[in-house]
Amino acid sequence: MRHPPPALLLPLALLVAAGAREAPVSARRSLAWGPGLQAAAVLPVRYFYLQAVSPEGRNLTRSPPGQTLFKVVVKSLSPKELVRIHVPKPLDRNDGTFLVRYRMYDTVNEGLKIEVLYGDDHVAQSPYILKGPVYHEYCVCPEEDPQAWQKTLSCPTQEPQIEEDFASFPSIDLQHMLKEVPARFGDERGAVVHYTILDNHIYRRSLGKYTDFKMFSDEIFLSLARKVLLPDLEFYINLGDWPLEHRKVNETPGPIALISWCGSQDSRDIILPTYDTTHSTLEAMRGVTNDLLSIQGNTGPSWINKTEKAFFRGRDSREERLQLVQLSKENPQLLDAGITGYFFFQEKEKELGKAKLMGFFDFFKFKYQVNVDGTVAAYRFPYLMLGDSLVLKQDSPYYEHFYGALRPWKHYVPIQRNLSDLLEKVQWAKENDEEAKQIAKEGQLTARDLLQPHRLYCYYFRVLQKYAERQSSKPEVRDGMEPVPQPGDDMSTCWCHRKKPSREEL
Fold it and tell me: Which family does it belong to (predicted)?
């Protein structure tokens, strides 16, 4: 995957100066890079980036003046191949860069031609030719060399959170897991699902009745299996909110290797990206409104035009959220907070009132976003980080898979668990506008890197790979397991060139 050249890494002050005047755009000097320009990088939504560059070779740091003139045409190389491809207009990220997305609904055998234009002129090396076959999301055609697949997606060589999670489990005793997990976590109120992946097929059985969220784990494992040959492994995934394994490594018995969507400081669960970010990645441009890509082009007015208040909307899933609303009532000049739905503290609705629902993109009309935990980590946090408001993050024992790469006062402003310093921090941000803006920008840029859809696939694969390497016995399809079939896709063509012909075809 090509990344922007070092010109993009100029000091911020120089970049600001370069973008301070309304420079025209040079199509040929502008830059295009990203996985959507590679045939082999199969993703639900393919995407790449554009950087507007002036005729003098300076990267623009704000949107070019006037209407967005970047446009993209994606079509089959062969006029004989009629394929369905949805290409919305590029998303303007308001900093001189643009995000281009397209979703394929068919596979093209000959290949794709991607024309990137600024006005009538071709951008960078446009037209880009992706030699076929170019597979769509639901084509079952796994790459049999996992290393080649990871190289195509430019997967990181290390993920510190994964290394930390597996440090507690140099080996995984599968036979012990088979006895202990059902006994400890398999009661009627359980939310654990037992998976086996064997020969790139997925099998599962549910433990307990609160396992409806298996639809989210099913869909990502199936999506991965369509793209790359997965290792054989057998594991348990916790679909509930809270991490489950609280034993310490030096205890007897020690912890067992459960997989969860959320971690905490006092648990040993192995963490995957949350079901929310996973589903939004799989269903982008189709089944969800907010996703990790669309949010980047919907971050509200520019910094100077945002309302100088801290903002919060959400359910009553934690008492501090009620405190937040009370603070808002007492300090409306600093804070606009409201509860949109009462479930846990219904008796408080009359006192605190119920706020109207707002579209998530409208949150970014405000300069400061308050992130307070829900039952566990607030799963809105990645979306807030991708905006261009300053995130005020509550101190929390809970974390998602990417939190370890973030630093307080560099990527966000920390606030006490009991919110006692929230108003002080909002006041600080108002009095230190440039510094607050810089922290917001650093957080946004880091989130853009960490939360790219291809990085999510890399993360899932690395967790499964690490787990498989540590299992001390051979995975099996157990009694009571059912296959999880790949979704039917009768509407689309898909001929996998990697598949060997069956005996009937010979």
Answer: Belongs to the KDELC family.
Buried b (16+ CB within 10 A) or exposed e, 13-26: eebeebbeeebebb
* Phi, psi values for residue 207, rounded to 5°: -115, 110
In whole angstroms, give the CA distance from residue 61 to residue 64.
Answer: 9
Domain that holds residue 439: 294-451
Stated pTM of the model:
0.92
Q: Are residues 345 and 464 in the same domain?
A: no
CA dist 14 and 61 (Å) reads: 10
Helix extents (H) in 153-270: 160-166, 174-185, 214-227
Output the 3-class SS for 19-85.
Answer: CCCCCCCCCCCCEEECHHHCCCCCCCCEEEEEECECCCCCECCCCCCCCCCEEEEEEECCCCCCCCE
DSSP label of 303: G
Q: Within a domain: residue 151?
A: no
Domain check: are 269 and 367 in the same one?
no
Q: What is the CATH number of the domain that holds 98?
A: 2.60.40.10
Q: Give dist(CA 202, CA 482) in Å, integer.
A: 9
My answer on whether 102 and 19 are in the same domain is: yes
Q: What is the pLDDT of residues 248-285, one digit of tens each?
A: 988 889 999 999 999 999 999 999 999 999 999 999 99
Q: How many structural domains comprise the chain?
A: 3
